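ugh finaly. both done.
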Amino acid sequence: MKSRLYLLILLCLGCETVVEVSPPEYDSEPVVTSFFSTDSIWSVTMHRSLGATVKRDVTHEYIADASVRILDGSNTVDILNYRGNGKYVSSTGELPTSGIQYTLRVDFPSKPSIQATSSAPSPVVISDYSIEYRPPEPDMIPASGYHLRIVFSDAPGMNFYRIGVYRRVWNPFATDELVPDSIYESIWFDDFSPGWSCGYFADDVADVDPTDVGGGSGGVPCEEFVVTDRLFDGKDYSWSGIALGGSDGRGRKEFRLIISSLSEDYYRYLQSLERNVFHDPLTQEPFPMYTNVSGGLGVFAGYTNTNLILPIPSDN
């Protein structure tokens, strides 16, 4: 009796029906990528989007037959020419101007146009700064560092800021004129001002709060900091932090601090990008990528950098 039961189970397991399900039809869309600032000419990269089941390389989907213009209202500011690899570059060499709301318009043969609008915010005005050597402390790795402080003026309205500090060091991989003999290396920071987020993980810009207890006080070093001006709108603001190391004889005796004023489009895009990079595919759904492109996908966003060179003081 048992042998008949086992035989029946085996027969049932062998009667498996495989149903093939065809993936839904996917309509490809144009994807635009353009980050512009006041210190670089206009540049746009475009390709066609690919469905999840499509195995083609995106480099085979570059768009080469578009007409790309930059507009200030109804006036054409620049016409971008195709240079290969999906890249369109300024034909005039003109640079964007901060504070102007630009529109990117892309026309295709026999297809609907797409467009997006953004601006490069005004540069940050730094009113004061200082850098001081921090002597070694017990149980600290590295043992010494440098305390940096800057004071900058915030313009009225919602603003988004990013701070990074870098040092020019010798490049050990330099081989010839195509590989530079020095590169910028990011500096890690600790004990930075409370409320600055180490990345873009805050669920909402209001969660990046400069009055929250936290910031660098949790003992977690960071390379890049972002914040909104929700609680210091229109006022002067002081930021500070301790650079971990930085004086080891491998490069110039100076720090380059870059404070970037980001458009909300740029902030939202970076936030969605970071969430997708770090999300757990086993437990989390992909985070929707931010787009401000009407009729397509991608992002057209402005930013403005303000550079400050800080000579590294003597540790004597």
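ok and the 2nd:
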Amino acid sequence: MRNLELENSLTSGDPIADKNRARFDARGVFAINLVGPPGSGKTTLLEALIRDHHAALAPCVIVNDASGRTDADRVAALGVPMARVTTEGTRNLDASLIASAIDYEFPSTDATLLIENDVEWTAAGNDLGEHIRLAVWSVSAGSDELAKPAAALRRCQILAISQVDLLGECEFDLQRVRHAMARYAPAATVAPVSAATGEGVTELAAKILSLRWA
């Protein structure tokens, strides 16, 4: 594992993101921008995908551990290639940071790169050079925000609803979310998942692979 203490770049992300994508394509790496607010369950979902579908995904990870080493340590314990980037207390990854991170310790071919990226729900986040975006939202956070055309949702191909094992204990209207997504992100897949029980994790991995080889 490499720890990359990198500062935020002020350079426009678009041309660098395009170069990142070209590098990923040349190396056979399928890059996923895993976006969502802090506490939405991104790291727990990463752990479940890596633990249960390691052989199929051939995962490697970039972790934006803005507030400390906790998430990076959890991913490192899984024994996958990983780089940790810090963003000086912010949660704004950009393509320049990813360009630096991918120089370190990643497989050259046939890998799935999962970029853990804290993004506020009202912000779309930067283009990092990913192939798809996987947005994550937790049942415990409620469904009201998901009924709005949030910027993070408009640009995602998959919306993972984490903690679905808590549906009976929290006020969360999954059907309302499906209807809302059909309006403002009709091409996106809604994927209910529970890392605690394993529900939906296999289906999510299969969807990721289907997009990779599409």
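summary for the 2nd one i guess: Confidence is low (pLDDT under 50) at residues 1-13.
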